[in-house]
Amino acid sequence: MRLENVLHLVNCHTEGVVCDVVVGGLPKIPGDTVLAQKKYFEQHLDHLRTMLCLEPRANKIRSVNVLVPTANPDAQFGFLILETTEIVEMSGGNIISVATVLLETGMVPMHEPVTEFGLETAAGLVPVRCRCKDGKVLDVTFTNQPAFVLIRDALIQVPHLGELRVDVAWGGMWYLIVDAEDVGLKLGPAEHEDVVRLGELIKAAARDKLDVSHPTSPEFAASIQCTLFAGPLSRDELGTLRSKNAVVVSPGWIDRCPCGTGTSARLALMHARGDIAEGELFVHESLIGTKFSSRVVDTTSVADIPAVIPEVTGRAWITGTSQVGVHPDDPFPNGFSMETLADGSVLTNL
Questions:
Q1: Among 22, 174, 265, 329, which one is least packed by beta carbons within 10 Å?
Q2: Taking Cα atoms as reference points, which of 261, 224, 228, 263 lies closest to residue 247?
Q3: Cβ neighbours of residue 29 under 8 Å, at least 6 residues apart?
């Protein structure tokens, strides 16, 4: 078996979404911070992202995490979050998988009943608290970087839909938040094709009109990254605040988990609207019925913008291990998508 550039992965999912973790085989990635390592990876190693995230070795409905060393004394590891179209600053689903993999493989010592440590992301340090029993991580709670609302109640024109009210919030990525009822969605699995179509349509319209930039970290993404369809808020028989949501990720797939950075962005919007009190429990449900529990644990500001500190809890499971490499005469060494095939840029050996 002649394979080059072999990478070693632990396969994992968080509440249904694939969040694999690369644990070996990568070249040295220079940089004093994970953000600097992200920039280096984008400039010099992006072929590894496309190899890992695109066909024929993968598909668009996944993320791949790359463990990197950290100089932060409060972090055990750093990691980069590779997705189909970009490397993102932060992802809650991925941090839950990474923490689970590190503990269950012994890369970080597990202490039952609770293990606490830090992970450095491109967005900054994220502390995690992991409940553990009999060698299994029962759940992971992470305290996110500040989340805030950048744009409230903007009106945009969307082809075929007309005028639509939207909000834009940062939760570690930029989210365009749309009330699902405004576009006729009930957020059931049978609607998945409509959710993707509408999410990409509305995002394209919003990008044409709404400019985004992080007020203190302009090096973060400078465009809307995901559409979050927010279901109506309700309270269950115990008085707990709950809601469904669906997050559409480019180039057109639905996050299977309730989305940790999306939950953080929505908490910021709910708090700004007065819909949730500090410390109050909020259960966020995905399109497939999996759940994150969350709360606002503190308030702060980013520049002069009011912000919240979100706390999100979810579960992950290791599903296997794998190795990925490239045969010397493989016509798709860097992977492909239908979008990249359109310009012929990957047809190197056909």
A1: 329
A2: 228
A3: 37, 40, 41, 45, 66, 68, 80
d(C-alpha 24, C-alpha 53), whole Å: 17
Per-residue pLDDT tens digits for 56-100: 999 888 999 999 999 999 999 999 999 999 999 999 999 999 999
Amino acid occupying residue 114:
V
In terms of domains, do 154 and 125 share one?
A: no
CA separation for the pair 277, 240 (Å, rounded): 12
Catalytic residue (choose from 63, 91, 243, 293): 91
- CATH code at position 208: 3.10.310.10
Any idea of the CA torsion for 46, 49, 54, 55, to the nearest 10 degrees? 90
215's CB contacts (< 8 A; 6+ apart) are: 302, 303, 304, 305
Does one domain contain both 102 and 188?
no
Q: Alpha carbon 24 to chain centroid distance?
A: 22
Q: What distance in Å separates the CA atoms of residue 338 and residue 214, rounded to the nearest whole number?
A: 31
H-helix segments, 45-185: 46-53, 92-104
Question: Residue 279 has which token pair?
Answer: 């410390």
Q: Residue 336's pLDDT band (boundaries 50, 70, 90)?
A: confident
Q: What is the CA radius of gyration of the chain?
A: 20
pLDDT for 252-288, tens place per residue?
A: 999 999 999 999 999 999 999 999 999 999 999 999 9
What percentage of residues in the chain have a pLDDT greater than 70?
97
| pLDDT given for residue 341 in this prediction | 66
Give yes or no: residues 109 and 154 share one domain.
Answer: no
Residue 91 annotated as catalytic: yes
Domain that holds residue 43: 4-131+318-322
pTM greater than 0.90 (yes/no): yes
Q: In this predicted model, what pLDDT tens digit does every residue of 149-192 receive, in sequence order?
A: 999 999 999 999 999 999 999 999 999 999 999 999 999 999 99
